[in-house]
Amino acid sequence: MSTSALPYRPHNHDACVAQALADARAICQQRNARLTPTRERVLELIWQSHKPLGAYDVLAVLTEDGHNAAPPTVYRALDFLQQHGLVHRIASLNAFVGCTHAGKHHNGMFLICRSCSNVLELTAPKVAQAVSDAASAEAFQPEDVMIEVAGLCPACRMDAPHD
Amino acid sequence: MSTSALPYRPHNHDACVAQALADARAICQQRNARLTPTRERVLELIWQSHKPLGAYDVLAVLTEDGHNAAPPTVYRALDFLQQHGLVHRIASLNAFVGCTHAGKHHNGMFLICRSCSNVLELTAPKVAQAVSDAASAEAFQPEDVMIEVAGLCPACRMDAPHD
DNA sequence: GAGAATTTGCAACATTATAACATTTGCAAA
DNA sequence: TTTGCAAATGTTATAATGTTGCAAATTCTC
Ligand SMILES: [Zn+2]
Ligand SMILES: [Zn+2]
Ligand SMILES: [Zn+2]
Ligand SMILES: [Zn+2]
Prior knowledge:
homodimer; alpha+beta; Arc Repressor Mutant, subunit A; two-stranded antiparallel ribbon; 6 helices; 44% helix; globular; binds zinc ion; DNA-binding
């Protein structure tokens, strides 16, 4: 019943990136946050695909750019982008992916394909509710919810043996 | 309506550890897996508390023990213990915690207190179902589900300001 | 323009995890 | 009981990821 979401659906990814960057500019302006050239470039790199990118991968590209970058350059940019909800860190991969719900308050749920590495971010209200209920039952006060699901995406399921 | 689970409830933790070790021996015997002295010692160390322990923390204790240990010693033992469902890795902390549901097939959900570091592992069928449904809606085939909730445990909520 | 605050450059360092290869140990068949 | 294999461990080195601290530069505010 549901249309398959990006990145599983073929899409114009250049437009995808352009939109993400435009949204980011709007969000930062609204918040008086400075989307400096380095930060914007890092965001753009993270958005190069729907596959998570490691901090040192970002660093390598910045270096190719001619940018005189060191690890803190990248981590600081990533911190900024995370704080403003523009990228997410995927803890199980030590890598970063662009947020597809930027601007809205949310705790994403990530479907991570172990074969092609694409990541789909969902907002699943029922999951969020169930997690919240389970925490409440233990009198636990949740602040940050991380849900990462590894498996096979639709495309890779078909290629895989034994269905 | 639910009784608060370990580790939030005061309990005889020595018995807690003893039980975990006994279970581990039984599980390994049943599987013809060898719970060697190093592996058992690492499991015991992980169980020293309900707080996650880093691999290098384990290593330090092994070294104190007089054991001539290097990082691979610890990581190999931890791999073994994970494969047999005796410990879990908490990705958001790069640390390991004893499994409180050893032997049963399960994907735990972890409530991690940011104040006291205690971790409570739950099996939340409703959460599991909701995650599974959300994945199915995207034709995604889940293999490994990681749910880590950071926040405040009951005890630390009371100490904290602003409730 | 002067002063304060934010951002960046830079060097060193800390932490977490793995690769590669030699050695030993446990176990079983000959 | 020897012999031979597979699993487990020891050992060294290195890779990958992330942080600290301080100085210089930039931007913002007045
Ligand atoms: Zn998001
Ligand atoms: Zn895939
Ligand atoms: Zn206990
Ligand atoms: Zn606590």
